[in-house]
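pls read this protein:
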Amino acid sequence: MRHPVSAAFRLDGEVALITGGGSGLGLGMARAMHAAGAQVVLLGRRADVIEAAAAELGAGAHWEVADVTAYASIPELVARIRDRIGPISILANNAGHNFKKLAVDTSVEEFSGMLDTHVLAAHNLTRCVLPGMLEAGHGSILFTASMTSLIGMPGVIAYSAAKSAYVGMVRALSTEVAGQGVRVNAIAPGWIESAMLRKALDGDPARSSRILQRTPMQRFGEAEDIGLAAVYLCSPAAKFVTGVLLPVDGGASQGF
């Protein structure tokens, strides 16, 4: 099916569920998808944050309080969204957390918790949303991967393992459902200006300098950059794109 260029990057009629959608990269995705015509459902654990974010976006923005690691509650959540708003046709697996510890100091419990939040929670939510997409013969699933999916970084072994697992999940799932109208892709953000980045870099100008030196565009990205990439991957413009890991990093994964 051909789409006019003006419509190829639109998401009209889509219902997008975005985990971790109240701030940072998730909110960047929500803003861009909402602007492209989708109804967006922001999912998070902090009611005040996601309610405020949805209010900022206005009509067509919704919110749900949920913990993605409360696995047994997810089928009911998906059914509630379907009944309130409509079948979920876009899923952005974006929720997650990070901590910095050397491998020898990372406990089994800490490592397991990282995998729970990223890998198991994303799989569980995906498997609950996927039947509706397959029935409709239409859907797009996104995973927020990381620079650590592509290059080695010290002090984040659990996070690196979780984000690298996303790449395998995208490859396997994309081939499994491609013939049934569902596309599966991932975005690997570089260093994006955010409260999390500020927390990591404020007071450490040497680290900021090292990051910028290895980023050919010599600047940090913005949440909007991730949002616009997400719109593209979920839009008709990418109707022949599945199974890809798209770096949005100012060239950092290729730089020296």
In short: The chain has one domain: 5-192+224-247. The mean pLDDT is 93.
